[in-house]
Design a protein that fits this description.
The structure is a single chain. This protein is α/β, with parallel strands linked by helices. The chain is 42% helix and 18% strand. It has 10 helices and 12 strands. The strands form 2 sheets. The chain has an 8-stranded parallel beta barrel with strand order 1-2-3-4-7-8-9-12, surrounded by 6 helices. The chain has a two-stranded antiparallel ribbon with strand order 5-6.
């Protein structure tokens, strides 16, 4: 099974000197990861966040081959024309290495409010934006009249020489339908293996109904994982601390969908998702010692690959 593996931007990366950042990206590449992925937030919970395109562009220049992915970009918070320009720019600075993960957010309603976005319009804004963006990146002159956006004769040049894959995040049926209409794959999160398999089947059926019959799907799964070389409890404590600090929500709400343990134990918890149709794992590794995140993530990859090869 040909799988892709992403690692979340290491927690220490931006505090390092330039040469050390490059060395860390080299290590990630050497350890079997195909890409580094990063989140996108404008003002999350207590004002936290980082701009997805800025960080992706910076990461892309630290290594000549490693892929970069925004996962996920909060598309409803932006106007589609600047986003199309950013995508076209990424296609120039990292040709063939950039993946665009999109979603509608909503975990923090205040983040939407301070951006002037009605939470009830998130889905509409995302769908209209994707319609506009994909037309522009195909080289079309786009005019559009919708509920959220009015566009008259917009053009973006140059268009990407290599198409940028779009993966759609979200747990709702609406997100799955958005994937079927616009996406090259779906990014699952916090769901059971049963739900994951159902989602993959639903996307396929919806896409066929839309006339998209030959999509080379790249569905992903993006879990936070707690990993320790020997202690399941230490691993669980690390991921509990990391998730609660970021989401400001009790860990118990995530625990059943959050793998934790030794690298082999975590791999065993992830393997059923690959059997259900996952082709890409984006791992947010939490460890007692942050400097071990890359090595622990690589060990999970090694065990997962071995488990699936034995099927």
């Amino acid at each position: 099974m040909d799988l892709k593996f992403g690692l979340a931007t290491p927690s220490q990366l931006w505090s390092l000197q330039w040469a050390d950042r490059q060395a860390l990206l080299n290590e990630i590449d050497d350890r079997g990861f195909t890409h580094v992925f990063l989140a996108d937030h404008v003002s999350f919970r207590n004002g936290a966040g980082a701009d997805g395109f800025v960080e992706a562009a910076a990461l892309a220049q630290l290594h000549p081959n490693l892929g970069v992915m925004i996962s996920i970009y909060l598309l409803p918070l932006r106007h589609p024309l600047p986003v199309a320009r950013q995508l076209a720019s990424m296609a120039r600075v990292a040709p063939g290495r950039f993946t665009f993960g999109v979603g509608i957010g909503g975990e923090d309603p205040h983040e939407l409010a301070v951006c002037g976005v009605n939470p009830r319009q998130r889905g509409v804004r995302a769908n209209e934006s994707l319609t506009i963006i994909q037309g522009l990146l195909r080289g079309e002159t786009v005019s559009f009249s919708g509920q959220a956006f009015e566009i008259d004769s917009a053009v973006i040049r140059p268009t990407p020489a290599i198409a940028i894959p779009t993966l759609v995040g979200g747990r709702s049926d609406a997100a799955l339908k958005r994937t079927a209409r616009f996406g090259d794959g779906w990014i699952g999160v916090w769901c059971s293996v049963k739900r994951y398999a159902q989602a993959v089947a639903m996307i396929e059926a919806e896409a066929i109904a839309l006339g998209r019959n030959n999509v080379d799907w790249c569905h992903g799964y993006q879990p936070w994982v707690g990993v320790d070389w020997s202690s399941t409890e230490t691993a669980k404590a690390a991921v509990k601390s990391g998730m609660e600090a970021f989401y400001k929500i009790p860990f118990e709400q995530f625990e059943r969908y959050t793998p934790a343990g030794t690298p082999l134990e975590v791999a065993a918890q992830l393997a059923p998702y690959a059997r259900a149709g996952c082709k890409m794992f984006n791992l947010k590794v939490c460890a007692e010692h942050p400097e071990e995140e890359v090595a622990l993530g690589a060990a999970v990859i090694e065990h997962l690959t071995q488990l699936l090869a034995a099927d």
